Amino acid sequence: MAKTYLYILTMALTTYAVRVLPLTLIRRELKSPLLRSFLYYLPYVTLAVMTFPGILSATQTPWSALLALGAGIVLAWTGRSLFTVSVCCCVAVFLSELILI
Amino acid sequence: MNSFTRGVKDGVPIALGYLAVAVTLGIAAKNAGLSILQAVIASLSNNASAGEFVGFTLIAAHAPILELVLMEALTNARYMLMSTALSQKLTAKVSTAQRLMLGMCVTDEIFGISVAYGDELDPRYSYGAFAIACPAWALGTLIGAVLGSVLPLRAVSALSVGLYGMFIAIFIPPAKANPVVLGTVALSFALSWLFSAVPLLARLSTGLTTILLTVVISLLAAILFPVKEEAENG
Asked: What is the number of alpha carbons within 13 Å of residue A95 lying toward its C-beta?
């Protein structure tokens, strides 16, 4: 119980540090092209690594998740908002599981 | 209309989106063994979708604190880039206290509207958006954590992919605009799958695999395809 609060506090402090340090410490532009490039690719790589194959075990059957993944990619590719993509993934799982399960 | 009021107004659609998406986060928190109060405190103090999701996974796995710190820093590293971009939009007269407060408001969406505010950012605009979006995020988490055990399995299963949908919506647009990002996303999918499917590699913890693959793939892309200025705004 107390351990969980320690975890939450650690999450909050680390996240805040990441957000606030550049705003307060870096008062001029970062110059290293390697560092800038690394920081540019990093978030997308992390999210992609977490999405697949993680999404396949989030639902009752991997097939509905695969369908949601496909729908999400197509909708995001065609410029739909974060909110729309997220909701449509949920709908894809719900409707396909009515048939699959 | 002052900057703060304008921020609140622009924050309304963000708050509505947060409300819906945070419901799935609340369910994830409940599944990870957090109490309702803990889930709400986590959302109020973190305001990070992917970061909280990863955190809950690691809490459930009783991971070492150091692994949690590393994963939070990596998962939220994009905020460092956003925060760096915002620092270029603040005049010298913006005090350190203001910068400390603005740091709390750096989320994907609030960054998005803040960076589009103008050549100079009035921090009060971001505070306004945060003032309505943050409570919505916590309220959504509360709803998810409370209803998670009441909702039918079918509904929980459907809502569980909501966060993955958010991730997809974050990494696909830049992948469409930049072939190198598309390549790194494809490589991330492939290697991540490999690390879960090959028996020897699958023995590594999910957290460790994520750190390892993130650093290796990002570094590889940075060395082979250094980013030019314009691409970073894409």
From this structure: 9
